[in-house]
Amino acid sequence: MTSVTLIAFAAVAFIGIATPGPTVLLALTNGSRYGIRRALPGMVGAVLSDFVLIGAVALGLGALLAASEFWFSVVKWLGAAYLAFLGVQMLRSTGSLGKALDDGRPSVGAARTIFAKSLLVAVTNPKGYLFFSAFLPQFIDPAAPQAKQYLLLALVFAAIDFVVMFGYAALGTQAVRVLKTSGAVWLDRVCGGALLALAGSLAFYRRAAS
Hints:
The chain is mostly helical. It has helices spanning 3-18, 22-58, 61-67, 69-91, 108-123, 126-135, 146-203. The two termini are 30 Å apart. Residues 96-104 have low confidence and may be disordered.
Protein backbone atom coordinates (compact mmCIF):
# COMPACT_ATOMS: atom_id res chain seq x y z
CA MET A 1 0.00 0.00 0.00
CA THR A 2 1.54 3.30 -1.10
CA SER A 3 1.59 6.60 0.77
CA VAL A 4 -0.60 8.13 -1.96
CA THR A 5 -3.22 5.46 -1.32
CA LEU A 6 -3.15 6.16 2.41
CA ILE A 7 -3.49 9.91 1.87
CA ALA A 8 -6.45 9.38 -0.44
CA PHE A 9 -8.02 7.02 2.08
CA ALA A 10 -7.49 9.52 4.92
CA ALA A 11 -9.05 12.35 2.91
CA VAL A 12 -12.18 10.37 2.03
CA ALA A 13 -12.39 8.97 5.57
CA PHE A 14 -12.25 12.46 7.07
CA ILE A 15 -15.15 13.62 4.92
CA GLY A 16 -17.19 10.57 5.86
CA ILE A 17 -16.46 10.87 9.58
CA ALA A 18 -17.01 14.63 9.81
CA THR A 19 -20.39 14.42 8.09
CA PRO A 20 -23.00 14.66 10.89
CA GLY A 21 -24.31 11.27 11.96
CA PRO A 22 -25.23 9.43 15.18
CA THR A 23 -21.71 9.24 16.64
CA VAL A 24 -21.07 12.89 15.79
CA LEU A 25 -24.30 13.93 17.52
CA LEU A 26 -23.34 11.91 20.60
CA ALA A 27 -19.89 13.51 20.71
CA LEU A 28 -21.49 16.95 20.45
CA THR A 29 -24.00 16.28 23.23
CA ASN A 30 -21.43 14.53 25.42
CA GLY A 31 -19.22 17.58 25.16
CA SER A 32 -22.10 19.91 26.00
CA ARG A 33 -23.28 17.78 28.93
CA TYR A 34 -20.03 16.63 30.49
CA GLY A 35 -17.10 18.57 29.06
CA ILE A 36 -14.22 17.16 27.02
CA ARG A 37 -12.70 15.05 29.82
CA ARG A 38 -15.96 13.28 30.58
CA ALA A 39 -16.69 12.85 26.88
CA LEU A 40 -13.45 10.91 26.34
CA PRO A 41 -15.01 7.47 27.01
CA GLY A 42 -17.47 8.18 24.19
CA MET A 43 -14.58 8.93 21.85
CA VAL A 44 -12.92 5.67 22.89
CA GLY A 45 -16.20 3.85 22.19
CA ALA A 46 -16.37 5.39 18.71
CA VAL A 47 -12.76 4.39 18.00
CA LEU A 48 -13.33 0.84 19.22
CA SER A 49 -16.39 0.59 16.98
CA ASP A 50 -14.15 1.37 13.99
CA PHE A 51 -12.04 -1.70 14.73
CA VAL A 52 -15.17 -3.81 15.28
CA LEU A 53 -16.74 -2.71 11.99
CA ILE A 54 -13.57 -3.01 9.91
CA GLY A 55 -12.69 -6.33 11.52
CA ALA A 56 -16.19 -7.63 10.83
CA VAL A 57 -15.98 -6.52 7.21
CA ALA A 58 -12.57 -8.16 6.83
CA LEU A 59 -14.12 -11.39 8.12
CA GLY A 60 -17.04 -11.15 5.71
CA LEU A 61 -19.89 -9.82 7.86
CA GLY A 62 -20.48 -6.90 5.53
CA ALA A 63 -20.95 -9.32 2.64
CA LEU A 64 -23.35 -11.38 4.78
CA LEU A 65 -25.53 -8.35 5.54
CA ALA A 66 -25.51 -7.39 1.88
CA ALA A 67 -26.65 -10.88 0.91
CA SER A 68 -29.05 -11.76 3.73
CA GLU A 69 -32.30 -9.83 4.09
CA PHE A 70 -32.95 -11.49 7.47
CA TRP A 71 -29.69 -10.55 9.18
CA PHE A 72 -29.70 -7.11 7.59
CA SER A 73 -33.19 -6.51 9.04
CA VAL A 74 -32.14 -7.76 12.48
CA VAL A 75 -29.21 -5.35 12.69
CA LYS A 76 -31.24 -2.53 11.11
CA TRP A 77 -34.11 -2.73 13.59
CA LEU A 78 -31.78 -3.04 16.57
CA GLY A 79 -29.95 0.08 15.41
CA ALA A 80 -33.13 2.03 14.70
CA ALA A 81 -34.60 1.12 18.10
CA TYR A 82 -31.43 2.17 19.93
CA LEU A 83 -31.20 5.49 18.07
CA ALA A 84 -34.87 6.18 18.86
CA PHE A 85 -34.26 5.36 22.54
CA LEU A 86 -31.35 7.81 22.72
CA GLY A 87 -33.33 10.45 20.83
CA VAL A 88 -36.24 10.25 23.27
CA GLN A 89 -33.82 10.51 26.21
CA MET A 90 -32.35 13.71 24.76
CA LEU A 91 -35.78 15.19 24.04
CA ARG A 92 -36.71 14.65 27.68
CA SER A 93 -33.52 16.31 28.92
CA THR A 94 -33.85 19.19 31.40
CA GLY A 95 -30.33 20.46 30.81
CA SER A 96 -29.36 19.67 34.40
CA LEU A 97 -26.37 17.67 33.24
CA GLY A 98 -24.73 20.86 32.06
CA LYS A 99 -23.41 21.31 35.60
CA ALA A 100 -21.12 18.35 34.98
CA LEU A 101 -18.80 20.72 33.15
CA ASP A 102 -17.71 22.03 36.53
CA ASP A 103 -17.43 18.64 38.25
CA GLY A 104 -14.35 16.50 38.68
CA ARG A 105 -13.63 13.10 37.23
CA PRO A 106 -16.64 11.07 36.02
CA SER A 107 -17.76 8.02 37.97
CA VAL A 108 -16.91 4.60 36.60
CA GLY A 109 -20.58 3.92 35.92
CA ALA A 110 -21.07 7.17 34.02
CA ALA A 111 -17.93 6.61 31.97
CA ARG A 112 -19.11 3.11 31.05
CA THR A 113 -22.50 4.45 29.97
CA ILE A 114 -20.96 7.14 27.77
CA PHE A 115 -18.57 4.57 26.27
CA ALA A 116 -21.32 2.00 25.65
CA LYS A 117 -23.66 4.48 23.95
CA SER A 118 -21.09 5.51 21.34
CA LEU A 119 -20.00 1.92 20.75
CA LEU A 120 -23.53 0.52 20.41
CA VAL A 121 -24.75 3.30 18.13
CA ALA A 122 -22.04 2.40 15.62
CA VAL A 123 -22.05 -1.40 15.79
CA THR A 124 -25.86 -1.67 15.51
CA ASN A 125 -25.97 0.40 12.32
CA PRO A 126 -25.90 -1.85 9.22
CA LYS A 127 -24.99 1.13 7.07
CA GLY A 128 -21.54 1.07 8.67
CA TYR A 129 -20.89 -2.51 7.61
CA LEU A 130 -22.16 -1.89 4.09
CA PHE A 131 -20.16 1.34 3.84
CA PHE A 132 -16.90 -0.32 4.83
CA SER A 133 -17.65 -3.31 2.59
CA ALA A 134 -17.87 -0.97 -0.40
CA PHE A 135 -15.24 1.55 0.73
CA LEU A 136 -12.29 -0.45 2.04
CA PRO A 137 -11.67 -2.79 -0.93
CA GLN A 138 -10.94 0.27 -3.07
CA PHE A 139 -7.74 0.75 -1.07
CA ILE A 140 -6.74 -2.89 -0.60
CA ASP A 141 -4.05 -4.45 -2.79
CA PRO A 142 -5.33 -7.98 -3.50
CA ALA A 143 -1.79 -9.16 -4.30
CA ALA A 144 -0.50 -8.25 -0.82
CA PRO A 145 -1.39 -9.75 2.60
CA GLN A 146 -4.80 -8.32 3.40
CA ALA A 147 -4.84 -8.59 7.20
CA LYS A 148 -2.02 -6.05 7.59
CA GLN A 149 -3.70 -3.71 5.12
CA TYR A 150 -7.03 -3.84 6.94
CA LEU A 151 -5.24 -3.19 10.24
CA LEU A 152 -3.39 -0.19 8.80
CA LEU A 153 -6.58 1.29 7.36
CA ALA A 154 -8.37 0.69 10.66
CA LEU A 155 -5.62 2.53 12.57
CA VAL A 156 -5.74 5.50 10.19
CA PHE A 157 -9.55 5.62 10.26
CA ALA A 158 -9.65 5.35 14.07
CA ALA A 159 -7.07 8.14 14.50
CA ILE A 160 -9.08 10.48 12.26
CA ASP A 161 -12.28 9.47 14.03
CA PHE A 162 -10.82 10.34 17.44
CA VAL A 163 -9.65 13.76 16.25
CA VAL A 164 -13.04 14.56 14.69
CA MET A 165 -14.99 13.35 17.75
CA PHE A 166 -12.69 15.41 19.97
CA GLY A 167 -13.42 18.46 17.82
CA TYR A 168 -17.19 17.99 18.04
CA ALA A 169 -17.00 17.41 21.80
CA ALA A 170 -14.99 20.62 22.16
CA LEU A 171 -17.59 22.44 20.06
CA GLY A 172 -20.34 21.14 22.33
CA THR A 173 -18.40 22.19 25.43
CA GLN A 174 -17.92 25.73 24.15
CA ALA A 175 -21.53 25.96 22.97
CA VAL A 176 -22.98 25.13 26.37
CA ARG A 177 -20.65 27.59 28.11
CA VAL A 178 -22.02 30.32 25.87
CA LEU A 179 -25.66 29.20 25.82
CA LYS A 180 -25.87 28.16 29.50
CA THR A 181 -28.55 25.77 30.79
CA SER A 182 -31.40 26.85 28.51
CA GLY A 183 -29.12 26.48 25.52
CA ALA A 184 -28.07 23.04 26.71
CA VAL A 185 -31.72 21.98 26.78
CA TRP A 186 -32.28 23.11 23.22
CA LEU A 187 -29.04 21.54 22.02
CA ASP A 188 -30.16 18.23 23.52
CA ARG A 189 -33.57 18.59 21.88
CA VAL A 190 -32.11 19.40 18.47
CA CYS A 191 -29.71 16.45 18.68
CA GLY A 192 -32.49 14.22 20.05
CA GLY A 193 -34.75 15.16 17.16
CA ALA A 194 -31.91 14.48 14.73
CA LEU A 195 -31.34 11.04 16.25
CA LEU A 196 -35.05 10.25 15.92
CA ALA A 197 -34.92 11.35 12.29
CA LEU A 198 -31.88 9.12 11.74
CA ALA A 199 -33.74 6.25 13.43
CA GLY A 200 -36.63 6.77 11.03
CA SER A 201 -34.36 6.89 7.99
CA LEU A 202 -32.63 3.71 9.15
CA ALA A 203 -36.00 1.98 9.64
CA PHE A 204 -36.89 2.70 6.00
CA TYR A 205 -33.39 1.93 4.73
CA ARG A 206 -33.18 -0.95 2.27
CA ARG A 207 -30.10 -2.90 1.29
CA ALA A 208 -29.16 -2.82 -2.39
CA ALA A 209 -30.55 -5.73 -4.34
CA SER A 210 -27.89 -8.38 -4.88
